[in-house]
Amino acid sequence: VAPGSRCLLLLLLLLLGILGSPALGDPGPLEDVVIDRYYIPKICLREAQMGDFIRYHYNGTFKDGKKFDSSYDRGATVAGVVGVGRLITGMDRGLQGMCVNERRHLIVPPHLGYGSIGVAGLIPPDATLYFDVVMLDIWNKNDKLQITTLSKPERCNRTVENSDFVRYHYNGTLLDGTPFDSSYSKDSTYDTYVGTGWLIKGMDQGLLGMCAGEKRSIIIPPFLAYGEKGYGTAIPPQASLVFSVLLVDFHNPKDGVFLEHLEVPESCKRRAVTGDFVRYHYNGTLMDGTLFDSSYSRNQTYNTYIGKGYIIPGMDQGLQGVCVGEQRRVVIPPHLAYGENGAGKYKIPGSAVLIFDVHIIDFHNPADPVEIETVFRPEGCNVTTRNRDFVRYHYNCSLLDGTRLFSSHDYEKPQEVTLGANKVIEGLNSGLLDMCAGERRVLIIPPHLGHGESGARGVPGSAVLRFEVELISMEEGVPEGYLFIWHGEPPANLYEQMDLNKDGGIPADEFSSFIKSQVAQGKGRLMPGSDPEKVIADMFRNQDRNQDGKITPNELKLKSDEDQEKIHEEL
């Protein structure tokens, strides 16, 4: 450019800068769609891209605010594919990049709208269009199920598989957060089989691999949900669904009882079998931890026979083989518990899996004898206890779980009893027989030889008792009904020997002196365990038949003779 021409050009640019350009005052027709993102959600997991299926609401107006169209007025959202020419160009461009729940104002120039032709009776030629749009849903045919684990139990021994029966709570919303259904509002879980076509495909897939107690968010694209038809008025066509799911429990119809041995005593001499009577404590919970029953709350064990149908089948099976003192977890599927109907009394829902944490207190069989373990037996033990003997012994009594009940050591002297006189429980009487002085034993006494179903003060009903006994001393007894017996034959002239002053009558003092002399000479013995004076006084009263204070020859009779007379009379 010539120097003169260059100066002229600079002068022209300067004048334009001073006077301003007419074009800057009036921008003229829009070249592209104008986008005003007036609300953007804080969380935007996805933006609409070319080829995505979208669902949205809109109001369409002209510049003067006059409305020409609205999806709200039709009561139905608009669904379509963005960026592939199925929408007017301005809308195609204006919708791209939107998030779910984002709101935009779009200004679409005529050449990106309906151009110079317009839409007869609706949109005039060369009209600029104004849209207020809210994005409700975005998905793509290549989408997969989106699963997010919100929380998961630390222990998860098993996860959901196809053909399992599940019980779960859920909140269902559209992708924009609009709720459409909730199991919580029905106060009941949703119960169904997985992988058998009872659920929409996305839920069938989304529940797989879940643990009981796990929470998940499951986002299901329309083609794995209700597709083009939607579902009623709550779920529009082509809607993505969001489920917040809490898996309460699950099982398989083929499941049996599952056992977990929490604590087994090192010593287990015997295991429970069918027909045994078991006493146990338990906590009963659902799989989500909800407590429905507890024996501890009643402060009383649950007592029952096992294997005889008195309890639910799963517990009948689950208690087989338990040891005394064992703690065991028994997981029972509903078909071995309360089935589809549940148990309203215990607030157990239908089809619920039950978990029992049990602690075995004791068990026995109605045919059990007393179990005797000799801990110590002195050498040279020639004399042992028999029924009617009078014994002194120490004891500690407890339940099989170690609960202390009674002890003779709490008193100043040992326990005293005449064996076979129905003064102690049958099992203890049996356990004290054939013992030597100084011998120590452990006795296990079943309830039918103890305090029975009713128990006793401080002793629970149907309790098996454990006695530690030590025989301190023993005195040979007399037969039942006898107060005194001869060691040999009684004197032939018994009355004459008793009548010390030979006056034809035996008063109480003569009778007492004679009996005491016989005992002192080792010719006879009194019933042990009672005051000798009282025993002799009872003997005198028995012989003084007319109660005149003396015994005559006709009154004096040996008990053996009296027994023979009674037999003769009966015959």
From TrEMBL:
GO-annotated molecular function: calcium ion binding; peptidyl-prolyl cis-trans isomerase activity
Occurrences of domain PPIase FKBP-type (ranges): 51-139, 163-251, 275-364, 388-475
- The record's EC number reads 5.2.1.8
Q: Where in the cell is it found?
A: Endoplasmic reticulum
Q: Which UniProt keywords apply?
A: Calcium, Endoplasmic reticulum, Glycoprotein, Isomerase, Metal-binding, Repeat, Rotamase, Signal
Alphabetical list of InterPro entries matching this protein: EF-hand-dom_pair, EF_Hand_1_Ca_BS, EF_hand_dom, FKBP-like_isomerase, PPIase_dom_sf, PPIase_FKBP_dom
Q: Which residues form the EF-hand domain?
A: 493-521, 531-566
Q: What class of enzyme is it?
A: isomerase
Q: Known catalysed reaction(s)?
A: [protein]-peptidylproline (omega=180) = [protein]-peptidylproline (omega=0)
One Pfam family here? FKBP_C
Signal peptide from the UniProt entry: 1-25
> Is Endoplasmic reticulum a UniProt keyword of this protein?
yes
The record describes the protein's role as: PPIases accelerate the folding of proteins during protein synthesis.
Name listed for the protein in its UniProt record: peptidylprolyl isomerase
Native species of this protein? Chaetops frenatus
Q: Highest lineage ranks of the organism?
A: Eukaryota, Metazoa, Chordata, Craniata, Vertebrata
